[in-house]
Amino acid sequence: MMRSLYSGITGLKNFQVAMDVVGNNISNVNTVGFKASRVNFETMLAQTIKAGRAPQESVGGTNPMQIGLGSQVASIDKIMTQGSFQNTGVKTDLAIQGDGFFIVSDGNAYYYTRAGAFTLDSNGNLIQTSTGYKVQGWTAVQDPETGERYIDTNRPIGDLVISAGMTMPAKKTSNVRFEGNLNSNVGPGSFTITLTDDSGVDHDVRVWFEKTAGDLGTDPFSSSQRYTMRIDVNNDGTADVSGYAVFNEFGRIEEAGIYAESQVITASTDGSITGSTSLSDGTYQAVVLDNSGNVVYNGTVDVSNGSYTISDPNIVGGNDYTVMLNSDYQTVTANTDSSLSGTTTLSDGNYNATVLDSSGNVIYSGTVDVSGGNFTISDSDITSGNDYTVILYSESQTTTANGIIEGTTTLSDGNYQVIVRDSSGNEVYNGTTTVSNGSFTISDSDITSGNDYTVTFLSSSLTIAPGAELVIPTSGEPRFYEADNPTNFVQVDYTSPRYTTAVQVYDSLGNEYTVYYEFIRLGNTTIGSESFKNAWIWRAYTASGEPVTLVDENGSTGVGGNNYIAGLVEFDESGRPVQYRGLYYDSGSSSYALSSDELRTIQFDTGQNGDGVVTITADLSGITQFSGDSTVNIPWQDGNPMGVLESFAINEQGEIIGTFSNGLTDVLGQIALAVFNNPAGLMEVGNSLYAVSSNSGVPKIGAPGSGGRGTLIPGALEMSNVDLAEEFTKMIVAQRGFQANARVITTADQILNELVNIKR
Known about the structure:
Helices cover about 10% and strands about 50% of the residues. The chain is mainly beta. The protein has 5 domains: about 1-80 and about 720-760, no CATH class; about 85-170 and about 645-720, no CATH class; about 185-265 and about 410-495, no CATH class; about 270-400, no CATH class; about 510-635, no CATH class. It starts with a helix and ends with a helix. It is built from 2 helices and 63 strands. The longest helix is centred in the C-terminal third of the chain and has 36 residues, at about 725-760.
């Protein structure tokens, strides 16, 4: 009977423990991050009344006869299941979805919790609200070279501080990234027009436009764009006639014509000087000096309507000369030091005077008075006995002599537009000349005597067959029409080949600059010996006018002393960029050429107290060239002005993202999570905190969302995982178990009482 008494007692104790656990669970039903516990029972020792017996040949075996001696508590386990979430809207409240624990520190030891009710203290520390313990994680590290903040989770964890006065330092722009499309259908469009000749035969004439290196001119980015015009009159796909057309930014023609005749002519060895004067009409004495002070002409000149022309074999076209009009040229011997006297046929008055020594050096330049045909010039450089050249004149001017091209042509008499190009193909003259009796003369200061030039006569119409004539517009609307039937016309569609986009960039102090990138389509073109398909050129300039320099991948600003004037981008047939080159004007060959090195970088000097030159490299790989609107933009650049922290937020990975007054965001730190091999083995230490125990395993610390760690839910808290219905059921079971064990004790007591009564 005594065994049952003690068994009942163990039952009472166990169910008392069960009630304690249930009571604790229910009391923490609203505790943030609380994990419920459960009690497991197990049997105690059993008393063996009779041992078991193995089977024999004639009888079977018997089981052992045992009486249990009660029960005991086997374990009290933590139920580490996920609790539900409650939104709070507080940005520092955090819940963990998945495994893991927040790490907090009192300065001496680490503790672990699922309760993410955090806040900031007066020093900006992220702390646990109830204890003031500091939340642990990684503070962002700033790269001293790039200024970028980054998280290094390989470093030890520490306190997280979010200071209200935190600043984002200014950063100089070094890179920009382009995205978008460049329209492949820009520039003047091609067309076909049908002309009918006198015999009634139709002729299909196709006209299209191309860009060549010669069309780039002195400014490839000019608002007026020149194109080579190709005309196919045989409808066989090849150009039979060529010309040119210059379109302004509104698509109107400024100049145009077809090449009617072309020939190579050597400029005359004679040159001419044309100038204007305030002298009255008449014949005057004139002296012409070259740059070395040598007299190349001394004779007369006729002035008519304020203009004059001097021609002489000693005058070389393209050279500079000084012309002295109404002059007197003579050699005078000095009779005394510092003084030079002579006579002149000039009328009395004040004249300009130039005195040259025997070597042609100017020793005096000033004025002198002529009276009675006599003059005296005083100067300390005049030496007695030496001969000097004295030139007296009313006025002088320095001008460049015109070179002269003379030739013959089979064209009819009349005025023609002509283009003169040098041996390198550069245009040196674009104007008019008169053909008279099959001869013509062209005079211009850019023509050098003795050099070879290609003279091309232009026409404003093209005769295909008798009666079939195409009229070329030379100005105004780009309307090509049939000469005998003006109602048969084609108006060229023109879309500007220019596209400009802008980006805000910064120097090292955060000063802002607007940089414009301008693109112009060349299309299919040849530069030097290289042919390109779908090529564009680009340049950059600032809104505030800082000079912008183009720099190739080797840091060079040009080739052979010639600075880059543009970058070139070529697209393949799939519309993707395939190469980036530098375009420069080769002064040696007087033609455009391309670098062999890649060019995507610009430089400009801010002129302020920044870090000197701003160097920006463009990522152009995101640009396409398709038929469609041009949409190129620059969505990203890596510079920024200084900013002050205005707010922050925490994301699912535990990153603390700050928003600054400059409109940018940056990572400030990251909250760490710890996971354990046996989280139920952690030891509760109060305040919803756990400490490491001998059976929990060591903490494995890392970033949320990695290594089996859960992610964070900002603005929410994890509620208790206590299930009240389940706890009430357990409470009923514990109550009934306790009552039953109590009945065992009272029943055993009654039996013992009956035994005692037997003695009576």
